[in-house]
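The protein record now logged underneath.
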Amino acid sequence: MDDIELIKSKLNIVDVISEYLPLKKSGINFKANCPFHQEKSASFMVSPERQIWHCFGCQKGGDVYKFLMEKEGLEFKDALEILAQKAGVELKKTGSKKDDLRNVLYEANQKAAQFYNYLLTEHKLGKKPLEYLKNRGLTDETIKQFNLGYAPQNWEILVSFLRKRGFDMKVLLDSGLAVASKQGGYDRFRGRIMFPLSDVRNRVLGFSGRVLGDELPKYINTPQTVIFDKGHFLLGLHLSKGSIKEKNEAIIVEGEMDFLMSFQSGVKNIVASKGTALTDAQVEEIKKYAPTILLCFDTDIAGDAASRRGIEIADKAGLNIKIIEFGGLPAGRQAKDPAELIKKDLALWEKAVKEAVPVYDYYLKSVSLRFNPRQAQGKRDIFAELIPIWSKIFDTVTREHYIEKLAALLQLKDELIREEIEKYKKTQLPETYKKALTDAPAPSQPVKNVTFDRREMLEQYLISLLLHQPAEASYVPNFPETIFTQEELKEVFVLLVLFLDSISFKSRAFKITEFIKTLPGEYVDLIDRLYLMEIDEKLGDVKLWQREVDLVVSELKKMLLKSSLEKLSLQIKNAQEFGNDDSLDILNRRFRDLSVKLKNL
């Protein structure tokens, strides 16, 4: 058994997926709302027996590796390493040069983090920055938990430390820890408190360094490297993801201290984005853990273009977006950021989080405070600010709701708002697209959705029922494969009947794992998907199951007869038009015979 199969044999897919979303028992399988698309009723199914999952909404599916790759956005190798660690399996060394480089960069960053932490917590050089952090409200436990450090005002202290431990200058430059010079390189971070930037696997990707005073730039970050991309990164997710899943929402702040103070205070469903412009990658990362985000940035989100772009991305991705406000606090309790507020009064921060407002309500409130909606100029200013935002609300129901609210604020008709939104959308189209849209002929037929009709669904359901045969049933179908219209299902059905006949002869109960072994490889995915179809738990009773099978078979036979009668009806009409009496008699007799059969079913 190779490492891949060994890991799968040691892990239960239900346990792994349960770390990401709540699974509910559904017969012999488990179900949940799909984590990969929005849905109201659960269509995400997991089979502990087959160790597979499948969503009948978005059609994604696979094994435990595929789930982790989809959920965490990982390559197979990374998913393999994570699951190997969970399973306690030591992987054989098989890496490319690129993998080796990444591992060396992780190691260099880890050593740097340990060095910076030592200087902060145990060396006299760290006395002043340590006092600074404690004055800001951080405890020794938090400093240790997040491995905070200090880079002293020295040009080569880190370079010297890492070179002595076997890291060459190229690695230090590639990691962003050093900056190139004629002599080779010098420390990038000097005179700064160091915040290690760790990924969900707690590997140090880089650093953010903050000055002790007010000099600029306040923060310096690791530049983009092979392992660090600011646009993909969310600070603290490696420790807060559990709380985010539990609360079903993620607070997103801008600064390291905002994150640390909130996490330390017990409000742990939080990350820092290191900027107000949320990216597609960050939004997709958050979606893995929660459907709702609560934004709390130092800037005025309503007036900040970068914030609005991030909100558009999150809205299009289907996230619920709320804004945390604490501007209207009582005298003596005002604060410029969450870190300061938490230090003053934790209860006010908790209250602000609890009372976060939906983002579009926040926009309405913001413009009503800055402009007068009762004056013509105020209406124009509100239009200019909100129409571009309203035009990009992705969900139709949400957009209609806020069109009505904006119309009410301005005391205008809803239709006027809609017209302005449509006008704005047209101004945003590229000229070539506008021309194509104008010149394009109307489609001759409406575009059909790719969906299964009732007959196809019943055929699939019948196979699924047969795959969920109760242990005491010992049932071998006695109806022909012609009941199926889908060729793949016909072929699968024949193979299934042969298998059921063989185990019935030996008085053995049906087991899906044994049947899978008898199948040609091209049918395995289809059988897995059909096996994961949700079956009513009552059908575990053999009598109820048999009755259900008989009902479906009867319905499919009726459909088959009705289809044949429709074809005969057309043939009869054709024979009548051409005066073909001999054929007409034969066709009429067939029609009567099939009608009697249909009536008797």
